[in-house]
Design a protein that fits this description.
- The structure holds two protein chains of two kinds.
- Helix content of chain A is about 10%, strand content about 15%.
- Chain A is mainly β.
- Chain A has one domain (about 20-95): Alpha-Beta Plaits (2-Layer Sandwich).
- In chain A, the strands form three sheets. A two-stranded antiparallel sheet of chain A has the order 1-4. Chain A has a two-stranded antiparallel ribbon with strand order 2-3.
- The longest helix of chain A has 5 residues, at about 30-35.
- Chain B folds into two domains: about 15-75 and about 190-305 and about 425-650, FAD/NAD(P)-binding domain (3-Layer(bba) Sandwich), CATH 3.50.50; about 325-420, no CATH class.
- In chain B, strands 1, 2, 6, 7, 8, 9 and 17 form a seven-stranded mixed sheet that branches. Chain B has a four-stranded antiparallel sheet with strand order 16-10-18-19.
- The chains are: A mainly beta, B alpha+beta.
Chain lengths: ~100, ~650
């Protein structure tokens, strides 16, 4: 059984993960914090760490944080499940979802 | 880890607010020209005023680098009939565009005369407007000499909106049907906003990012008096900002999600940016400026959390030349927004009905797809990489799809058009053109106050924002040179401070999302598809009750939530103006999306006019203006722009 501490927390805003960070690539430059017109992010209190997604439910999925990131691969863009589009291979008919 | 609850779990406590808190503290800034809103229109206004050597301050709720509807990119430069490849006369084209009912002839004329100049200036600033890398050699519409990329849009006619004037009348009626207008240019819009911000900085424009303007300052604090600045606060620190100016340009766009708020997809509840909340319109209204076309609403289109997010053909913006096919590959008679149909996006009602019936009979199998693989390679790349890749909010879409394995040369992209059907009639949006009345200087009805882009009534696209912003900037600069200093009213400042900070003085009550959703629901019930005097009055009563009982409960735990709370109050006022305007129009109207059950006649001749609306002595006052109140567009433009020097040639 996990020894992880369980904390009491309200339901979290959903979806809450418009992006995920790769902490090995992100150097915490906070450029994404600045280009976001919504202020979805706040800088991490510890310098050099990826920012914190504070207002995920306000995101309008413009993608500027990912497109403008100076360290490609540091941020991965993620739509909520209900917004992930579908496509079909024209030759095989195989259907995929993003 | 990147979420808030990750942090909480790891640290055992929530992070502190990362910015210093400065509620109630004041900063006072002086400028010749103050620009409120740092989108495409606002940036261009600031640049144009600064180029005349004046001191300019630009105030933006987000960060100017990517803010506004055009921040992430913009697709078509829609009305550049003065470009060297154009086959139309700019003034004649402007008149043609202005045939659309309830449009803005002043803005359209400015756009048609100056849009090409804005593109050349965009290029000077570092934005990309030509295929200089020869990526699309051979694409239809690409000019070998200039390397400009024309769009099929407006190929023969001004508009693809049903019922919007003459059809295919402009060039197609000429002897040679192959002649196209060539007025719409494809651009690399993703490069534009950073270039604009850079130019603002280079010119010494003082930019105040993360500041929400909340109210205008008027001479002696009097209602209807000359505008002498604005107030607001920093949405990270809460610091109160007082901007004194000789002239002020509003460029904050119109109202956003007034009928809808998905509380957990707040940013998705609006076709435009989440930050579009009617703040500018409302502060001008409160100062006494006159508005028009506020009764115009329509059913919300794409990009809402309730529906698919993005462009998958069949009526979506940049999906040019992509055939729509059914699940078995059968081509649908839907317009492809391409060279063959002059960029038509919306089918005639009978075509739409035929597709619907075809689905019911099994003639067309769902789902439908955008058939990218069937397109010639260069056209496919032009649509996927240039049109979609550079359009606002779609760069990330094509990148993410490709990363996930989508190959546009191999795969069909699902279209949601007929699966989802139309939006519900009560899911409406006010983004159909209500806004500030302007004159040929883009001055509002208040001295010292100018408007640009989507802040004006009947706005158009990104290029319209650029042309009118640039124009408003030079006119506001002219005015600033003529007028003297003016004293601001301390009483007005104190009153606004009390209003602004009220929600942070409470620690419990109602949070912004609940208030917003409550306003939206009242609008859905009483200001929806069907309107009657009685329903509209019930709407006003409902909003009044919200204002009296719920607004005083608003609480905000930090400056960001304070911004959202104050936006809601803007939206509430905006919603009330919509109802007052709807009550005043005692007729139904097709172009205004207004169906009055008690006045069923549609666009009767006596109601073909603009209705105006403003606050006077605390009461709503309505009036009217003729449909073409701007007069002879060419003559008026020339009379007001004798000193226009064209493309910027300064340092």
């Amino acid at each position: 059984m996990s020894k992880e501490k369980v904390i009491a927390i309200p339901n979290i805003a959903t979806p809450n993960n418009p992006v995920t960070f790769d902490p090995d690539i992100c150097n915490g430059c906070n450029h994404c914090v600045e280009v976001c017109q919504i202020d979805v992010y706040i800088p991490h209190p510890e310098k050099g760490k990826p920012p914190i997604v504070l207002h995920p439910e306000e995101c309008w999925y413009c993608g500027c944080c990912v497109s403008d990131c100076p360290r490609p691969g540091a941020i991965e863009f993620k739509w909520a499940l209900q917004h992930r589009g579908y496509w079909k291979n024209k030759a095989t008919g195989e259907v995929h979802q993003i | 880890m990147s979420t808030w609850h990750d942090y909480l779990k790891e640290q055992g406590y929530a992070p502190d607010w990362p910015y210093p808190i400065r509620f109630e503290q004041e900063q006072e800034i002086d400028a010749d020209v103050l620009v409120i809103g740092g989108g495409i229109a606002g940036c261009w206004a600031a640049i144009s005023a600064a180029r005349q050597g004046l001191s300019v301050v630009l105030v933006e709720k987000g960060d100017t680098i990517r803010s506004g509807a055009g921040g992430p990119g913009c697709d078509h430069w829609c009305n550049a009939p003065a470009n060297p490849l154009s086959n139309v006369d700019p003034d004649e084209w402007a008149e043609h565009m202005a045939e659309r009912p309830y449009c803005n002839g002043i803005g359209v004329q400015i756009q048609c005369r100056e849009d090409w100049d804005t593109l050349l200036e965009m290029e000077q600033m570092g934005g990309k407007i030509r295929d200089t890398d020869d990526e699309y050699v051979g694409a239809i519409g690409r000019d070998e000499k200039t390397k400009l990329m024309l769009s099929p849009r407006y190929g023969w006619t001004h508009s693809y909106l049903p019922g919007a004037g003459k059809e295919n009348a402009f060039i197609k009626s000429d002897k040679n049907e192959d002649i196209r207008t060539n007025v719409v240019i494809r651009v690399w819009g993703y490069t534009f906003k950073p270039a604009l911000k850079k130019e603002c900085k280079r010119l010494g424009v003082r930019i105040f990012d993360r500041v929400m303007a909340t109210g205008l300052l008027t001479e002696k604090g009097d209602h209807g008096a000359r505008v002498v600045g604005a107030m607001g606060f920093n949405n990270r620190t809460g610091e109160f900002m007082i901007f004194k100016s000789k002239s002020t340009i509003l460029a904050t766009a119109g109202g956003g999600s007034i009928w809808m708020l998905n509380t957990e997809l707040g940013g998705y509840s609006n076709m435009m940016s989440r930050t579009t909340t009617g703040d500018g319109t409302v502060m001008a209204w409160k100062a006494g400026a006159e508005l028009t076309k506020m009764e115009g609403t329509g059913v919300t289109r794409i990009a809402t959390g309730h529906k698919h997010k993005w462009y998958t053909g069949a009526g979506d913006a940049s999906y040019e030349n992509v055939p729509i096919v059914d699940a078995n590959g059968k081509v649908l008679p839907y317009p492809i927004q391409g060279w063959v149909d002059a960029g038509a996006m919306v089918p005639a009602p009978e075509v739409e009905q035929a597709i619907r019936e075809g689905v019911l009979k099994g003639e067309y199998a769902l789902p439908f797809y955008g058939d990218f693989p069937s397109m010639p390679d260069v056209e496919r790349r032009a649509t996927w990489n240039l049109m979609l890749g550079e359009e606002s909010t779609t760069k990330i879409i094509i990148d993410t799809f490709n990363k996930a394995g989508y190959d546009e040369s191999r795969d069909l992209l699902q279209s949601y058009k007929f699966i989802e059907g139309s939006s519900l009639p009560q899911w409406r949006e006010p983004g159909y053109g209500g806004g500030l009345i302007v004159d040929w200087n883009l001055k509002t009805t208040l001295d010292g106050l100018y408007a640009a882009g989507t802040q004006m009534f009947s706005p158009e696209d990104h290029s319209y924002a650029a042309a009118t912003g640039r124009y408003a900037g030079r006119k506001a600069a002219d005015y600033a040179r003529e007028v003297g200093e003016s004293k601001i009213s301390r009483e007005q400042v104190d009153r606004e401070k009390a209003r602004v900070y009220a929600p942070v003085k409470r620690s419990g009550g109602m949070e912004w999302k609940e208030l917003h959703a409550g306003i939206a629901r009242a609008m859905q019930y009483y200001v929806s598809e069907f309107k009657t005097e009685s329903l509209l009055n019930m709407g006003l009563d409902a909003l009044q009750k919200i204002e009296e009982e719920s607004v005083p409960l608003l609480f905000a735990l930090d400056p960001h939530k304070l911004m959202r709370s104050l936006e809601d109050i803007s939206l509430l006022t905006y919603a009330k103006i919509i109802i007052h305007a709807s009550l005043a129009r005692k007729a139904s109207s097709f172009p205004l999306g207004l169906q009055r059950i008690d006045y069923p006649a549609v666009d009767p001749p006596e109601w073909k006019k603009f209705l105006t609306i403003k606050l006077e002595n605390g009461k709503v006052k309505t009036g009217e203006l003729p449909l073409t109140f701007w007069g002879n567009m060419k003559k008026k433009y020339e009379a007001h722009n004798k000193d226009y020097t064209g493309v910027y040639s300064g340092k």
